[in-house]
L-glutamate gamma-semialdehyde dehydrogenase
Amino acid sequence: MSFKLTYATMFNPPAEMHARFDEALRGVEQALGARHRLHLNGEDVAGVEEDERRSPIDQRRVLGHFAVASANQARQAVEAAHAAFPAWRATPWPERVRLLKRVAALIEERVYLIAAALTLEVGKNRMEALGEVQETADFFRLYAEEFEEKNGFDIPLPDDPLEGWTSHNRSVLRPHGAWVVIAPFNFPFALAGGPVAAALVTGNTVVFKSASETPWAGRLLADCLRDAGFPRGVFHFLNGSGNEVGQALVHHPRTAGITFTGSFDVGMRIYRSLANGPWPRPCITEMGGKNACIVTANADLERAATGIVRSAFGMGGQKCSALSRLYVDEAVADALVQKLKEKMAAIPLGDPRRQEHWLGPVTTRRAYDNFARCVAAITRDGGRVLAGGERLNEGELAHGFYVQPTLAEAPQTHPLFRDEMFLPILMLHRVQDLGQAVQLANDSPLGLTAGCYGSDADLAYFWENIEAGVTYANRPQGATTGAWPGYQPFGGWKGSGSTGKAIASFYYLAQYQREQSRTVVE
């Protein structure tokens, strides 16, 4: 590409980008309905059955027929990854780095085709889809470069102070073995590709299971790894349910570690399972968010409203970093609400294949149905809908999962201030001051992202006291969303993550390895 895409810089892309996306979309749509296989032990293979997937944009449109793995195939994949591990671990790390960079290059060559598929499968607008694909390429390249910079995490230490002897010491990080990656439906390419890249470059072999709602993205990632030339058995791609395939992977005795991205409940079950074996195995869980934004009496309300709308309603609120709770100083609440209503009314909503539409459908029928339940709960439990609140089921939107972005005001005791909805619903509560706002923001078992709009003094207090792993201040690009590899590490505190270390941070790759201290005496 002749320009660089990131979530922070893609608000005014060149015409070339739209032309290339439209061309790719036409090509992808002409090939819809194809059959897609698993990738097991170096070969593309059939599953035990096929799953016909349809687009959330229009349920009449069949995306393809996707192989579904059995629990036995999941076990075979882990055994094959375990068998391939010694040779892959022994592969010189510059070769592993080279292969990762090759994957990054292949993703960038296919960025428009993959993004077009994501738009059709997930319902993202083209900018979100292109951003996700480019982000994945950046993960592969960033982790390869970091492994190079760290010299394969082989670090010499001082010699022992022994008279008459020379005793050399070093710290070496070593891989664990067959690593399982379980990806979510909302970022099915990036949140698969990131941990896959980290596990592979550090010398682990990988079994990757896509979300059953988005197997196409998983298959497209598998194509890039297959075509990059990884040795047989080093990487495997499976599609199937969490109850069958996921459970088989989690409970396999050869599974050396797991990276899971998804809900708190499922993540904690996996975490406990890996802790309760014959020895504790590493488990990196990136779980949910109930993310808060604070608007103080000193805030720039125009900037705040812009960032709030982008974070609360972008991609239908289906980001783990999406803004869900808004705490506003009562002195400026009415003015902010008015600005939010105006910006929400101006959101271009519709078929996300079209350039002019910023907001498409939610991805699943379950989310579509859950939207109606949550809106009903707003008024039932003492709140009121300030804007939105309707499912859109007329005209050209009748065959997809379209809902209105929704703003509601409620007492802090309302259940929707606690529940992770994963929907374009923003709950607002008025506060007396910044101290109360921070206290309420922290009153959650989750702590992924948080934002604040206010003065320098407000921000100093916010950063000193907020309990979240990713924080933003006075950011019009997004109040709580928009982390990018190499710029903002992304990881949660409390129930939002099991390690307290962030994706694409200085500390991420070390989690896929174990330390070995080596001493040799001459």
Remarks:
- The chain has two domains: 15-287+499-514, 291-485.
- The mean pLDDT is 96.
